[in-house]
Design goal:
By secondary structure, this protein is an all-alpha fold. It has 25 helices and no strands.
Length: about 550
């Protein structure tokens, strides 16, 4: 056989392992996928937006009540506005000329960060999550372009962010705030939401699992929030505000500079991240990612039971929820000794705190109020875990486990055990962290720890009632599991915030959290705890009946 000449080599077609990148038809089917995503999120997205708007509205109302006069707002700036902990949480209070400007600071970058996190979760849910479960492969088998799923996730998350920002601005204008400043305030939410959307799009391409993608995206935003806090506490490090989109949106400065430039930085980051995500998506195999999950052993006796498997799947979620809530409560513990100094001279602020927590020593009232929100967080964790259990079923993995001879009752029991562990762990660790922070400041190690842990643990039965309700939905009507978020929202409004809204007592009694003993303000009462625990147990039993009767994977 003769060797190829240089002319033959030049004339031969050039082979390549990778197909040429092309945008032709890459977005086919985006409209249909977007409509499907909006239909699937018809409960989750409105709950996201309503909760964020509700928290801002409640804050505005409380600020109008407590700091209605200029003198009260100036006093606030001289106390909380100079406290290092509040500087780290909310930034400096520089504009006290109106209730709206003070409320904008009091809402703080914390709620804006929450919207950015929700944007990350949304875009990952419609991209990497669909890919991880195998549904995207089926969708791509139809006439759907390579970039249609990414475009869908970006459109839904970006739309949620823009709509939330617009509603924020409209709400402030309706309260009589300055128009330009109200728009700048809403722009903070929209800008960070867009930045979070772009970050989530890239993370969905980098990670192989949705959980890893969510973790990376959330950590990036939280790290930016922390760096911004360092910049606010230490003036010499103010350059740290410019290293993350959280710092950029702070520089928009509503009711002050009303600067649009930092928002353009967030928009540029959004465009750049989406472009990078699109390029990576076109060049990788379906299911591939830069961060690969650590492979387990080919055979392991450690995963021989449903409980061991459930622990492997759910433990990272339990740890992340517990550590996140605990970190916040540690900071609250540092502030407990300062509550009397900060609010003691303001009868209106004392009234708001007492409406949230009850009557008594102000520090203990504040502790009870915060632990009430920790109970809501534990209930939200329960909804998250049951949602993941439902995802295991819809992906077909539950049917595979049941095919091994595992009974339905044993399978569900594994998830119930992990559910109870998480619901207990969140308030328990929150109490320990709050007690640690309080003890480090006050030196009262015994009483500080005891009060904080007790205030946390009494929230467990009420959170278990919510868990039981969501389990009933899963056991009988699994497609309605997402309604658990609505249940948590309703209990938040009528329970924790019912007094602020002036709701009648019978409405507030609908929330199980209303019946929780107000420890350490009041002595521990065993009756309500046993009653709530009994209700939770009955609901769990009802869920078992439904799960054993219905088809796996059915409605």
């Amino acid at each position: 056989m003769s060797a190829l000449t240089s002319a033959d080599t030049a004339a031969a077609p050039r082979r390549t392992d990778a197909p040429p990148l092309s945008l032709r038809g890459a977005f086919s089917g985006t409209g249909a996928l977007t409509r499907l995503a909006l239909r699937r999120d018809r409960i989750v997205l409105p709950v996201y937006v309503v909760v964020v708007l509700l928290m801002v509205a409640v804050t505005y109302s409380s600020v109008a009540t407590v700091y209605g006069t200029q003198a009260e707002r100036d006093e606030l700036a001289a106390s909380m506005g100079t406290n290092s902990a509040f500087l780290a949480l909310l930034g400096p209070l520089e504009h006290t000329g109106s209730v709206a400007s003070t409320a904008a600071w009091r809402v703080g970058l914390f709620m804006i960060l929450v919207l950015g996190v929700l944007a990350v979760l949304t875009v990952v849910r419609h991209t990497r999550k669909e890919e991880e479960t195998g549904r995207l492969e089926l969708v791509r088998a139809a006439r759907v372009g390579a970039l249609a799923p990414l475009a869908t996730g970006v459109l839904v998350a970006a739309g949620m962010s823009v709509v939330t920002g617009a509603l924020m601005a409209a709400m402030y204008v309706a309260q009589g705030a300055d128009g330009a400043s109200s728009v700048a305030f809403g722009l903070q939410f929209a800008a960070l939401g867009l930045a979070g959307t772009g970050i989530g799009a890239v993370c969905a391409q980098v990670a192989t699992s949705s959980r890893t993608a969510n973790t990376i995206g959330v950590l990036l935003l939280v790290a930016g929030y922390a760096l911004r806090g360092v910049a606010d506490i230490e003036p010499s490090a103010d350059w740290l505000r410019w290293v993350s989109p959280v710092g950029w949106v702070q520089e928009i400065d509503p009711f002050g500079a009303n600067a649009w430039g930092p928002a353009l930085l967030c928009l540029a980051l959004f465009v750049a991240c989406v472009a990078v995500a699109a390029r990576v998506s076109l060049g990788r195999d379906l299911g591939a990612g830069l961060v690969q999950p650590r492979p387990g052993p080919a055979g392991s006796a450690a995963l021989a039971s449903p409980l061991a498997l459930a622990t492997r799947l759910q433990l990272p979620g339990i740890v992340s929820w517990t550590l996140g809530v605990g970190a916040y409560c540690l900071l609250v513990g540092f502030l407990l000794d300062s509550v009397d100094d900060i609010a003691g001279s303001s009868p209106q602020m004392q009234q708001v705190i007492e409406q949230l927590g009850g009557a008594g020593a102000l520090a203990q009232v504040f502790q009870v109020a915060i632990m009430g929100f920790v109970g809501i967080a534990a209930a939200a964790f329960a909804v998250t875990l049951v949602t993941r259990v439902h995802a295991e079923e819809t992906s077909g993995r539950t049917e595979l486990v049941l095919a091994t001879g595992t009974s339905r009752a044993r399978y569900l029991t594994a998830s119930v055990v992990l559910l109870v562990v998480g619901v207990v762990a969140v308030p328990l660790w929150a109490g320990l962290m709050m007690g640690l922070g309080h003890s480090l400041v006050s030196g009262g190690w015994g009483s500080a720890f005891g009060d904080a842990v007790a205030a946390g643990l009494v929230q467990v039965p009420a959170a278990l009632v919510v868990a039981g309700l969501v389990l009933v939905l899963y056991g009988w009507w699994p497609r309605l599991v997402a309604l658990g978020w609505g249940v948590v929202t309703v209990f938040l409004v009528v329970g924790q915030l019912g007094e602020l809204f002036g709701l009648p007592q019978w409405v507030r009694d609908l929330s199980p959290f209303t019946h929780v003993p107000q420890v350490p303000l009041d002595p521990f009462s065993l009756g309500p705890v046993l009653a709530l625990t009994g209700i939770a147990g009955a609901l769990v039993a009802v869920s078992y009946v439904g799960f054993r009767r219905r088809d796996v994977g059915g409605a």
